[in-house]
Write a structure and sequence with these properties.
Blueprint (H helix, E strand, L loop, with lengths): L2 H9 L9 H10 L1 E5 L4 E3 L7 E7 L2 E6 L5 E7 L4 E2 L1 H6 L6 E4 L3 E7 H10 L1 H27 L2 H16 L7 E2 L4 H8 L3 H13 L3 E5 L2 E4 L2 H9 L3
Antiparallel strand pairs: 1-8, 2-7, 3-6, 3-8, 4-5, 4-7, 9-11, 10-11
Helix pairs in contact: 1-2, 6-7, 6-9, 7-8
Length: 231
């Protein structure tokens, strides 16, 4: 991989976005790149936590297993997304599964050389803390939603969250992050229930459906009202 291309990939990651290219040279020198085929695991729960990964291309799902080995979706990541930050800092085993949804190009930063880089560049350490805080906040919000709200409210929360990731939750925005099976896993219900709810909301003019991976927002305020409803 050419150095300039690797630097561009690194600068697409929020952790490194504010750093000039010259400051990224030592990191790029330590990085390694590899291909992950569709269906392959980047890591599994319990694997050693010895690297952080940056997705250069492709899509990767992160999940854990609940009761009866049912997948509980944590996130779906794409180009520019980063995962494994905690392992870089504490070196503890992986607590979730990361599996390729499509063929992926991955850039890996191993723990020991990265820690040495952080010691020399405290501004990067501060940026890393900011990234970790955002990820923790997302987890807390998802947990609070699960406890306090019913299935319809959690579904609305997920759609608004995806809309926020894909742009801004406004009328006409098309989301394309997850399919119905993924949404069902994220809110702890069945794919059939999700399809029924989406069909009802489409009939009511709240959203539109243009395919298994695409939702169009029509009435954002109605969606927010459902998200705040406690059942």
């Amino acid at each position: 991989m050419m150095a300039d291309r690797l630097i561009d990939c690194m600068q697409a990651v929020p952790l490194f976005r504010e750093l000039p290219p010259d400051a990224l040279g030592p990191v790029c020198d330590q990085a390694r790149r590899f291909t992950l085929k569709q269906g392959e695991f980047l890591f599994q729960k319990g694997d050693p936590g010895n690297a952080m990964f940056i997705i250069e291309s492709g899509s990767l799902r992160v999940y854990t297993l609940g009761e009866a080995e049912r997948q509980v979706l944590l996130d779906v990541l794409g180009p520019g997304d980063v995962l494994g930050e905690l392992a870089l800092l504490d070196g503890r085993p992986r607590t979730a599964y990361a599996q390729a949804e499509t063929d992926c190009e991955i850039v890996a930063l191993d723990r020991e050389p990265f820690l040495a880089y952080l010691r020399e560049h405290p501004e990067t350490a501060i940026a890393l803390l900011s990234t970790l805080s955002a990820r923790l906040r997302q987890t807390v919000i998802q947990a609070e939603s699960t406890v306090a709200h019913g299935s319809a409210s959690r579904l609305a929360h997920v759609i608004l969250f995806l809309a926020d990731r894909d742009g801004e939750p406004v009328q006409g925005l098309v989301t394309s992050r997850l399919n119905r099976k993924d949404i069902a896993a994220a809110i702890g219900t069945s794919e059939e229930w999700v399809m029924q709810a989406l069909t009802e909301w489409s009939r009511d003019g709240i959203i539109g459906m243009t395919g298994p991976r695409r939702l169009i927002l029509h009435d954002v305020e109605a969606l927010r009202a459902i998200a705040e409803r406690k059942e």
